[in-house]
Amino acid sequence: MKLFWTPASPFTRKVVVAARELGLWDEIEIAPTVWPLDWGYATVAFTEGLAEANPIARIPTLITDDGVAIGDSTLICQHLNENAKGISLIPNGHEKWRMWSLYAIADGLLEAQILMRAEMLRLEDIRSEGFLDKQRDRIARCFDHIEERANELEGPLDLAQITVGIACGYQDWRDWLDDFRPGHERLAQWYAAFAGRPAMRNTEPKETPAG
Ligand SMILES: N[C@@H](CCC(=O)N[C@@H](CS)C(=O)NCC(=O)O)C(=O)O
Questions:
Q1: pLDDT beyond 90 at 101
Q2: Scanning 31, 34, 69, 117, which has its CA 20 to 30 A from the CA of 208?
Q3: Residue 208 pLDDT grade (very low, low, confident, very high; cuts 50, 70, 90)
């Protein structure tokens, strides 16, 4: 398998953490991508092979061993999960939809963080404060919701927990995002332990090379 990657992308980190937890990391060849800083609002020069594999030209994009390009982190995680032996990050039965329901909140939170990142890359005098506030409000509602469901973070490891952990990590990394901890004590306590997992420690976010 080949993964178009950068260490700054939380969607890509989700895939990498899942691959590490599933014991599949050694089977993935990394294709590092570079992103000029105007990627948030302009078409940029893409890393060789990315747009050819996936016309959406976003990361993560995984090329499977069968040569199929999958350009979405949720689908990539499902593909990896299917290929893992003796371990699953997707529970069965009723638990499955409970897990996907929490996952969707955490994934929407990641999306709001990345929409803000793209807007923050614009010059200050043309940024939309209204747009940034809208995403901030969404992020706050999502953290409130996750706090209410913090007991769901305590079960066997699943994709929802990984996505929540990555959302917390991104929130800490970008200084223009608020500390998620005030008012979310159970989540804060859970994240303090979760961030210590080797898969999380080995994938801490770093800036993407601009090319
Ligand atoms: N829903 C997609 C979102 C992927 C995404 O937004 N990736 C960002 C990086 S975190 C990206 O490649 N952005 C480049 C662009 O939008 O041009 C997924 O889950 O994979």
A1: yes
A2: 69
A3: confident
If asked whether residues 189 and 97 sit together in one domain, one would say yes
Residues 177, 100 within the same domain: yes
> What is the CA(138)–ligand 1 centre distance, in A?
18
CATH value at residue 98: 1.20.1050.10
pTM tops 0.85: yes
Tell which atom from ligand 1 comes closest to the C-alpha of 74: 19
What distance in angstroms lies between residue 115's CA and the mean position of ligand 1's atoms? 10
User: What pLDDT is attached to residue 209?
Assistant: 77
Residue 171 is part of which domain span? 93-199
Concatenating the DSSP letter of every residue in 33-87 gives ----GGGGTS--PPPTTHHHH-TT--S-EEE-TTS-EE--HHHHHHHHHHH-SS-
User: pLDDT at residue 199 above 90?
Assistant: yes
Pocket test for ligand 1, best of 58, 79, 170 (most atoms within 8 A of CB): 58
Question: Based on the domain organization, do 98 and 195 belong to the same domain?
Answer: yes
